């Protein structure tokens, strides 16, 4: 194996990278193997059980998606991590099927995905038997929106991608008929973001939310108990969830990426907030995932 620089790129855009990994299943498997590997890397000996995968790292390295150290350890570059995140999001196809079966979008629907990431929900919506008339994806991360733009391809004319904070949505009151938010709410200002959610939903509109329960962070706390930084972060999320549930106060700590305010949600807490927004919970479950489906009945 030869070493490659961290940021080479024979690809013209992220869209080219996405087309590359979709061109061969083994390329996709290679990126995902790195993404899910410990620390985002794969050692040569770990590839013995993945012989169909290993040869493709050289091709991915030429494209600037992976790099190899002098010791031969493969790691994802920044572009590779973006592509890997997109692929991982697209793996959740069954969850998206469940979500859209409940949302029941129509031909005149306006579908909004909050925290859209690389756009898997938008792409799924565009491929429904009766796709929404308009689709909107909002995310604070510009690189995710670039990936979403590339992934949507021919569906792009019916989709608006916006870089914005979920606590200040650039959408007029009651403009949206169907909303989804999959794992974006735990990371934002709860009161402001949920208030914005209620504001932009039209009467009779439907919403599908996926959030984190306390068990999610307890499991992380145990799984990552040997990484002291992760122990501190997971402990903070648990403490933040407790304080928010008891006092309605969300702790916010400055970090190099902005305010860190992650927390878990409770069924009772979400029910109270949504009720105040005029959103009735029609279905929820907290088995493997914490998901809520509701309908806007009025304020």
Describe this structure in words.
This protein is α/β, with parallel strands linked by helices. The protein has three domains: about 15-90, Arc Repressor Mutant, subunit A (Orthogonal Bundle); about 90-210 and about 265-295, Vaccinia Virus protein VP39 (Rossmann fold); about 215-265, no CATH class. About 40% of the residues lie in helices and about 20% in strands. It is built from eleven helices and twelve strands. It has helices at about 15-25, 25-35, 55-60, 80-90, 95-105, 120-125, 140-150, 190-200, 215-225, 230-245, 265-275, and strands spanning about 40, 65-70, 75, 110-115, 135-140, 160-165, 175-180, 200-210, 255, 260, 280-285, 290-295. Strands 6-5-4-7-8-12-11 form a seven-stranded mixed sheet, with helices on both faces. Strands 1-3-2 form a three-stranded antiparallel sheet. Helix 6 (about 120-125) links the parallel strand 4 and strand 5. It is globular and about 60 Å long. Mean pLDDT is about 85; it is low at about 1-10.
């Amino acid at each position: 194996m030869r070493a490659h620089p961290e940021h080479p790129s024979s690809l013209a855009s992220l869209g080219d990278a996405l087309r590359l990994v979709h061109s061969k299943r083994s390329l996709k498997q290679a990126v995902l193997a790195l993404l899910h590997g410990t620390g985002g890397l794969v050692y040569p000996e770990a590839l013995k059980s993945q012989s169909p995968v290993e040869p493709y790292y050289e091709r991915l390295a030429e494209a600037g998606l992976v790099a190899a150290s002098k010791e031969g350890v493969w790691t994802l570059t920044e572009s590779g991590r973006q592509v890997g995140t997109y692929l991982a999001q697209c793996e959740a196809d069954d969850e998206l099927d469940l979500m859209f079966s409940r949302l029941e979008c129509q031909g005149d629907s306006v579908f909004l995905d909050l925290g859209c990431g690389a756009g898997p929900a938008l792409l799924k919506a565009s491929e429904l038997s009766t796709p929404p008339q308009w689709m909107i994806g909002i995310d604070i991360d510009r690189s995710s929106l670039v990936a979403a733009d590339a992934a949507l391809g021919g569906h792009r004319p019916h989709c608006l991608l916006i870089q914005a904070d979920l606590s200040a949505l650039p959408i007029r009151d009651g403009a949206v008929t169907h909303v989804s938010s999959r794992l974006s709410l735990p990371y934002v200002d709860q009161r402001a973001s949920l208030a914005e959610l209620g504001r932009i939903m039209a009467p009779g509109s439907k919403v599908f939310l996926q959030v984190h329960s306390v068990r999610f962070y307890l499991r992380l706390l145990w799984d990552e108990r040997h990484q002291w930084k992760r122990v501190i972060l997971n402990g903070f999320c648990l403490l933040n969830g407790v304080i928010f549930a008891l006092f309605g106060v969300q702790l916010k700590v400055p970090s190099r990426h902005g305010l860190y305010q992650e927390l878990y949600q409770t069924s009772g807490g979400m029910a109270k907030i949504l009720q105040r927004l005029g959103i009735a919970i029609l279905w929820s479950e907290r088995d493997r995932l914490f998901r809520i489906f509701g309908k806007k009945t009025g304020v």
